[in-house]
Design a protein that fits this description.
The complex is a heterodimer of chains A (380) and B (306).
Chain A (H helix, E strand, L loop, with lengths): L1 H20 L3 E7 L6 H18 L4 E7 L4 H13 L5 E3 L4 H13 L3 E4 L5 H4 L7 E3 L6 H12 L5 E6 L2 H14 L5 E5 L7 H9 L4 E4 L4 H9 L6 E4 L5 H7 L7 E4 L8 H14 L5 H19 L5 H10 L10 E2 L5 E12 L5 E13 L13
Parallel strand pairs in A: 1-2, 1-3, 3-4, 4-5, 6-7, 6-8, 8-9, 9-10
Antiparallel strand pairs in A: 10-12, 11-12, 12-13
Helix pairs in contact in A: 2-12, 3-4, 6-7, 9-10, 12-13
Chain B lengths: L2 H32 L6 H19 L2 H22 L9 H23 L15 E4 L3 E4 H23 L1 H11 L1 H6 L4 H26 L7 H15 L4 H27 L4 H26 L10
Antiparallel strand pairs in B: 1-2
Helix pairs in contact in B: 1-5, 1-8, 1-9, 1-10, 2-3, 2-4, 2-8, 2-9, 3-8, 5-6, 9-10, 9-11, 10-11
Classes of the chains: A alpha/beta (380), B mainly alpha (306).
Chain lengths: 380, 306
Amino acid sequence: MKKLVIVILGLLISFSVTTSYAKDVKIGLMTTLSGGGSHLGVDVRDGFMLAMEQSGRDDIEVFIRDDARKPGVAKKISNELVQRENVDIMTGCIFSNLAMAIVPSLVRQGIFYLSPNAGPSKLAGDMCHKNYFNVAWQNDQLHESMGIYMKKSGLKKPFILAPNYPAGTDALEGFKRGFDGKIANEVYTQLGQTDYASEIARIRSSDADSVFFFLPGGMGIAFQKQFDVNLPIFGAAFSFDEIIINSVGEAAIGAKNTSQWAYDLENPTNQAFVESFKAKYDRIPTLYASQGFDTANLILSALEKAHPEDQDAFRAALRAANFNSTRGDFRFGCNHHPIHDIYVREVVTGEDGKPTNKLLGIAVEDHQDAYADQCSMDWK
Amino acid sequence: MSLSLILEQLLNGFQLGITLFLMASGLTLIFGVMGLINLAHGSFYMTGAFVTAWVTGMSGSFWLGLACGVLAAGLIGGVVELLVMRKLYNRDHLDQVLATFALILIFLEGTRWIYGASPLWLNIPDILDGSILLPGGVVYPIYRLVIILIGVLIAIGLYFLINKTRLGMRIRAGENDREMIGALGVDINVLYTLVFALGAGLAGLAGATIGALQSVQVGMGEPVLILAFVVIVIGGIGSIKGAFIASLLVGVVDTFGRVLLPSFFKLFMEASDASTIGVALASMLIYLLMAIILVFKPKGLFSAND
């Protein structure tokens, strides 16, 4: 009798062990799919799901949720995904304030978080964590690179402006770190402001030789349409994605912007990505779509090596970043943020008469964010 | 600060004021004549902008788009009055707020459903694109000047409509004594629908002209609506004259506040701190203005029902 019990128990245990090895992977993709800024979330989702579909793996389950750009909603949904659905990996946040609300507690619970967009300085610096990876960029990187590029281009006195909120002040600080020179004037506008007449008047009466701005979403559209001063304009890709420059129209032509990716970047991974994205969704992908695609491919490359439940092995596989990125060379710094080339693009008139981005060249090679030193992780 | 910069900022203030006036005149008429608090007024602003962008995109003519936008806003205003507002006149103000807030949500989701979440494409017509040199050395965008001009013409038109025509007489009578004008045989229902459609059409005009300058997107009307409420409270509820003067006042105070306050704090503070505090204070300035005016004139500058 005793032997029989042991045999049955043994069988049960071995059975449960084998099932846990064949276990599915669960990924929570929570992003902004409604309200202001939803075109970013939609593109991240579409890029991510495109990569999942191309992988052909049917043992990965993706739970797609909408955070409606509200930190409270994000918190609730992420708890639900962890507790009810038992996800192994979370990803998706577009906005830094939402990422700050959910990431620290998720990674402490042993969930892997891969950011496809938001890259707040805290998570790159002293709050870096072994389970947190950023596949897009640290928030300052594109601004800082534009500062370096403008300095190199021989510009002397830029007029810089951004909305008065944390990402806005970070943007201007990042720019000044890169530019490291005299600034004509530094102006903070209201968040959500739509009329820039008085700022434009100040630009006109200043002795600036160029304008750098960070005005995401509708703010950037309004500013560029109203801007009528004969000065070159510069910014990060956030104000010049394909959807925004289509809304701005002709006024955007000639603007230069920094991006870690461009749709006309010549590498086989990217060309295949752009083509398949266009075929599936019938539109040109934005940088957000490329970030979603990269995030999914990084996860897939790590899953080849280990299941997320084997935390150390899975983390090592993520750190190796052994996947083909749409942006070309890609590796992680010690704080799990990318070290990559930052490109400059110019807005030109496309073949269909609508504005589009054209790759000009590299602004900064192998750029690493400024907060890596503050991170105490040491695995390299 | 040079004289030309001051003049340019003054024009900017007027242009903002004129836009507010187009919104506030309808709002104040509707409140004055029907005693109705209409939170959904911003939705007509949005409707005007979206229809203008849509028709302009299809036909290629901004002016045709503008006409369609204004008509559509007026028409939808009339329909909303017939279907919803009519049931609210005898209700409490709180019921009106609740019902018109529901309308805001319906319009927002409806617009998102029809046009999608991304902003639409509407450009300034070619002949109005560019800037001209005004006396005093001011370079100013032509389109903004035209907006000011349109607003002034509308204000003059409204003045004649209210003071010199039979319809205007009925509107004034409606403001003073609603029951009496009904007893005298005027069809009050038609009058109400007309006034409501007129107000909605003006809001649509504001949205369409501003849409070309800013961006045509879901929820664009609500920030303007808040300012328009400040304007009608300062101007005195029900008074077109009050709305005109108050909107110019709010426009100029807001514009100069945003320019001058940060420079003022820069005199004794570090640049980035001064900018932060200045911007924060500037956004409060018009509410301070409203509070101060209400202390001395509790019913606003030109209350119609004194």
